[in-house]
């Protein structure tokens, strides 16, 4: 039996920060107490560091199979672990898209064989795969994903009969990408004719505007309320959409939940001048007024989860004209750093970061025995020096695409150790790949 004893760390968990020790035995946290000793355990001294439950990212695109010139599950999961993310849920718009149970299982096998992080994969929905969707395991699959606005690939679901049928009958969580396709197409055609190749990424939030998001999100909420569906709307990006959510209920009692992504919190439309296509993503990064409203709603619990929508593309793809450059930003390695920047600016507490990045995803998706530091739970743990300065550069960017919008920035806060299901997968820049992550399971 492999044992580790984390000593002297400031444990951030369930709304409190307390100096405690944590004993790990094999995959499990066996004890948390103020002063633990053990003769045979390997000691990890976390003095002056913070010990947090591993981050659970409920929305990533790791591009495998079929888009492996952009990324592989292997590379992106390593990047995730280096940033303190111990579990991910990956989207179905790969090539081919995960629209059958066999194609979904193929992705699980890739995860099992190559992922250093724990994993789950969404089942995809099209206009004509209803029977396959209904076969999805509620206990082994994180959810089903519906693109109610086309973003990447050909997975747009715009048949209202299909949508109503799925919302009425699925027994599990539905996650949606919400942008009104007709409005986006009309505005895209208008501005393409008007601007041609002179268009830059600054036009992106004008084409994919607030109204496009609200029309689709409100439609999804109406469907969910009509059919009492468990709905989770991904990457909310506008102040207008916030009216669709409330904080009157606890997260465990909500039927409709929401997510905000780190880039919609960190960037606003003024940043296109500096970053251009590098921050082109769907939904678009919008005005500062929207950005400020999102942070406020996160803090008052109208928005439930922080995620990344990690979506890498090659550098060459991003250098094309605006119309050709694909949407998506690589973020999973630095999501905790982004939120620590908010902490250092006095805008959010460490307890709230852990709540939104670890506890809430576990609770929202009903993940078995993860997301908290508790005896009997899987030992998914990150140990972080929140004050350590380091620079993001080519030598430490681990994404296969080898770029980040934060390249050459000095950031404050560094993950020094990451445990994945009790395995010390990352130790001060060194990976131990002798064990892979585990498949997530769900209490439904």
Give a quick summary of the entry.
The chain has helices at residues 73-82, 101-114, 130-134, 160-169, 181-195, 204-207, 210-227, 262-266, 272-275, 288-299, 315-318, 335-344, 350-365, and strands at 3-13, 16-25, 28-33, 42-45, 50-53, 55-60, 85-90, 118-121, 123-124, 144-147, 174-177, 231-233, 256-261, 305-307, 381-391, 410-420, 423-427, 430-431. It has 13 helices and 18 strands.
Main β-sheet description: 9 strands, mixed
Arithmetic mean pLDDT: 96
Low-confidence stretches: none
**Radius of gyration, Cα only, in angstroms?**
21 Å
Helix-residue proportion: 25-40%
What's the number of helices? 13
Q: How much of the sequence is in beta strands?
A: 15-25%
Terminal CA distance reads 31 Å
How many strand units? 18
Based on helices, strands and strand pairing, what is the structural class? Answer: alpha/beta
Tertiary shape: globular
Describe this structure in words.
The chain has 444 residues and is of the alpha/beta class. It has 13 helices and 18 strands. Strands 1, 2, 3, 4, 5, 15, 16, 17 and 18 form a nine-stranded mixed beta sheet that branches. The longest helix is centred in the middle third of the chain and has 18 residues, at 210-227. The mean pLDDT is 96.
Distinctive features:
444 residues, alpha/beta, nine-stranded mixed β-sheet, six-stranded parallel β-sheet, 23% strand
